Amino acid sequence: MENTHNPTIDFYIRQTWHKISRLYNQQASEHGSTISIAYILLIIDKDGTPSTQLGPRMGMEPTSLSRTLKTMEENGLIYRKVDGVDKRKVLILLTEHGISMRKLSKKVVMDFNEKLEAKIPKSKLKTYFEVMEKIDQIAGEELNGIK
Question: CATH says 9-118 is which class?
């Protein structure tokens, strides 16, 4: 990546994520899905996940999440169920179709990760994860300082 300017750290994160996102969206669209739907499929627990936990785990705004969940329900990927213990809690569960799409999503992610692991030495990946964890921590501290 050559640039006449001195790019910032976040520039590289954003540029790389944009490419990965396009790759995943391209593959998801071949199956009538999106990256957001695929990630939601991947984070829904076998026994269901409260809808209130999905937004923070996805980093999505409530309005976008609600729209995406509605689409997923309309497409037969998920269904909602009131929690047996806490009637205020609504669980999101996968349908059979949702489970098969989850398997497909997982395969796409795992295949890409295997390609990365085959081309990047473990020691460099270890350093990458340490750096990304630190960046995440600092970004979180900055967010909390704003509030």
Answer: mainly alpha
Is the distance from CB of 33 to CB of 72 less than 8 angstroms? no
Ranges of each domain in the chain? 9-118
User: Per residue in 43-87, pLDDT tens?
Assistant: 999 889 998 888 888 888 888 899 999 999 999 999 999 988 888
d(Cα 77, Cα 93) in Å, to the nearest integer? Answer: 9
**Predicted model pTM:** 0.81
Categorize the per-residue pLDDT at 146 as very low, low, confident or very high, splitting at 50, 70 and 90. Answer: low
Within 10 Å of residue 69's Cβ, how many Cβ atoms?
Answer: 20
Whose tokens are 């009538």? That residue is 32
Neighbouring C-alpha atoms within 13 Å toward the C-beta of 49: 18
Which is it for strands 78-82 and 90-94: parallel, antiparallel or unpaired? antiparallel
What length is written for the chain? 147
